[in-house]
TrEMBL record:
<keyword id="KW-0472">Membrane</keyword>
<dbReference type="GO" id="GO:0005737">
    <property type="term" value="C:cytoplasm"/>
</dbReference>
<dbReference type="Pfam" id="PF00611">
    <property type="entry name" value="FCH"/>
</dbReference>
<dbReference type="GO" id="GO:0051015">
    <property type="term" value="F:actin filament binding"/>
</dbReference>
<dbReference type="GO" id="GO:0005886">
    <property type="term" value="C:plasma membrane"/>
</dbReference>
<feature type="compositionally biased region" description="Polar residues">
    <location>
        <begin position="286"/>
        <end position="303"/>
    </location>
</feature>
<dbReference type="InterPro" id="IPR027267">
    <property type="entry name" value="AH/BAR_dom_sf"/>
</dbReference>
<feature type="domain" description="F-BAR">
    <location>
        <begin position="4"/>
        <end position="263"/>
    </location>
</feature>
<keyword id="KW-0597">Phosphoprotein</keyword>
<keyword id="KW-0963">Cytoplasm</keyword>
<protein>
    <recommendedName>
        <fullName>Proline-serine-threonine phosphatase-interacting protein 2</fullName>
    </recommendedName>
</protein>
<feature type="region of interest" description="Disordered">
    <location>
        <begin position="286"/>
        <end position="318"/>
    </location>
</feature>
<comment type="function">
    <text>Binds to F-actin. May be involved in regulation of the actin cytoskeleton.</text>
</comment>
<dbReference type="InterPro" id="IPR001060">
    <property type="entry name" value="FCH_dom"/>
</dbReference>
<keyword id="KW-0175">Coiled coil</keyword>
<dbReference type="GO" id="GO:0030041">
    <property type="term" value="P:actin filament polymerization"/>
</dbReference>
<dbReference type="GO" id="GO:0005884">
    <property type="term" value="C:actin filament"/>
</dbReference>
Length: 333
C-alpha cells in the first residue's frame, strides 16, 4: 500500500489559498500542546511521588515495636529500614520524572525554533504571492479596459471615416493609435505580472513541498518522542514496583527468621521470676489454733508482785474454768 505524505495531499486549486499549509500548522500546534500536557503530567506525577516519598520517610521514623525483643524486634527493624529505602526510591523516581519532563520541554522548544524559520519563510512567500496575484489581477483589469478603449476608438474612427473631415479623421486616427499603444503597454505589464506570478508560484510550490517534508519529519519525530517518553515513564513505574518488591522481600526474609518459640524463651530467660509457685493457703480454725497453742508463763521480774493464786473452792461452790485449761468452754454441761 502506498504511503501518504503531507506534500501530496495539502493543495488547493485557488492559487492564493493557504488552507492546506494552515491545516498542517494547526495540527503541529495541537501536537505542541500535547507535548506541554504530557510535560505537565510528568511534573505533577513527580510532585505526587515526592510528597509520597516524604510522608513515607516520616512514617519510617516513627516508633514501631520499641518494646519488642529478639527475632521479632529484628524483623520490625528491617521493616522500618526497608520502608525508608522504599521512600528513597520514590524520591529518586520523582527526580527521574522531572528529568524526563525537562527533556520533553527541551525537545518541544527545539522543534519550535526549527519550525519558526520555515514558518517565517512560508509566511513571507504567501504574502508575496498574494500581493503579486493582486497586482496581476489589477494589471489584467487595466489591460482589458485598455483593449476595450482601443476597440472603441477603432470603431469610432471607422464610423466617421466617410462623414468627418480630414482633420477630424486625423484626430480620430491619432486617438486610435494612442489607445492602441496604451493597450499594448497594458498588455506588456499584464504579461509581465503574469510571468512574475508564475515564477513566484513555482518558487512557492517548491518551498511548499520542502515545508511539507520538513513538517512531516517534525511530526514523525514528535510522535516517536512522545511514544518513547510515555514508554520510558511506564518502565520507570514498573522498575519502581520491582525495586519496592525487592525491598519488601528483605522484610519477608527477616520475618521468616522470626522464631516464635525462641522469642518466648528469650523473654523467659530475661525476665523470669522463679520456678516455684506459692503453697496452698490452709484453712485455720480460730479456736483450734488457740487451744493447741502452748501456754507461756509470764516472766517474773524484780519489783513486781507475783500472780495471785486462784482461790480455793468449797464443795458446794460453782466450778469455773480458766481460758488456759484444755477443757475450757463457755457452756457448762
Amino acid at each position: 500500500m502506498r504511503e501518504l505524505h503531507f506534500k501530496d495531499h495539502f493543495w488547493n486549486t485557488d492559487v492564493t489559498s493557504t488552507v492546506g499549509y494552515d491545516s498542517i500548522i494547526q495540527h503541529l500546534n495541537d501536537g505542541k500542546r500535547t507535548c506541554k500536557e504530557i510535560e505537565d503530567f510528568l511534573k505533577a506525577r513527580a510532585a505526587i511521588e515526592e510528597k509520597y516519598a516524604k510522608e513515607l520517610l516520616a512514617l519510617s521514623k516513627k516508633v514501631c515495636g520499641s518494646s519488642e525483643m529478639n527475632t521479632l524486634k529484628r524483623s520490625l527493624d528491617v521493616f522500618k529500614l526497608q520502608t525508608e529505602n522504599v521512600s528513597l526510591s520514590h524520591m529518586h523516581l520523582a527526580q527521574t520524572m522531572r528529568e524526563e519532563a525537562k527533556k520533553l520541554e527541551d525537545f518541544k522548544e527545539k522543534q519550535k525554533e526549527a519550525r519558526k524559520k520555515v514558518e517565517q519563510q512560508m509566511d513571507a512567500l504567501h504574502k508575496q504571492k498574494a500581493a503579486q496575484y493582486k497586482k496581476t489581477a489589477e494589471a489584467k483589469k487595466a489591460y482589458e479596459q485598455k483593449c476595450r478603449d482601443k476597440e472603441e476608438a477603432e470603431q469610432n474612427m471607422n464610423r466617421n471615416a466617410t462623414t468627418s473631415s480630414s482633420k477630424q479623421q486625423e484626430k480620430l486616427y491619432a486617438k486610435t493609435q494612442q489607445a492602441k499603444q496604451t493597450a499594448e503597454e497594458a498588455d506588456r505589464l499584464y504579461s509581465q505580472n503574469v510571468s512574475l506570478l508564475g515564477k513566484m508560484r513555482e518558487e512557492w510550490l517548491n518551498e511548499h513541498v520542502k515545508a511539507c517534508e520538513f513538517l512531516e519529519k517534525q511530526e514523525v519525530e514528535r510522535i516517536n518522542n512522545l511514544r518513547n517518553v510515555v514508554w520510558t515513564h511506564l518502565n520507570h513505574l514498573s522498575q519502581q514496583c520491582v525495586t519496592s518488591d525487592e525491598l519488601y522481600e528483605e522484610v519477608r526474609k527477616s520475618l521468616e527468621q522470626c522464631n516464635i518459640q525462641e522469642d518466648i524463651e528469650h523473654f523467659i530467660n530475661l525476665r523470669r521470676t522463679g520456678d516455684k509457685p506459692p503453697a496452698p493457703v490452709p484453712y485455720e480454725n480460730f479456736y483450734n489454733n488457740h487451744r493447741s497453742a502452748p501456754t507461756r508463763s509470764l516472766p517474773t521480774t524484780s519489783g513486781r508482785r507475783a500472780a495471785a493464786t486462784p482461790p480455793s473452792t468449797a464443795e458446794n461452790d460453782p466450778l469455773y474454768s480458766t481460758v488456759a485449761e484444755p477443757g475450757y468452754s463457755l457452756i457448762r454441761y
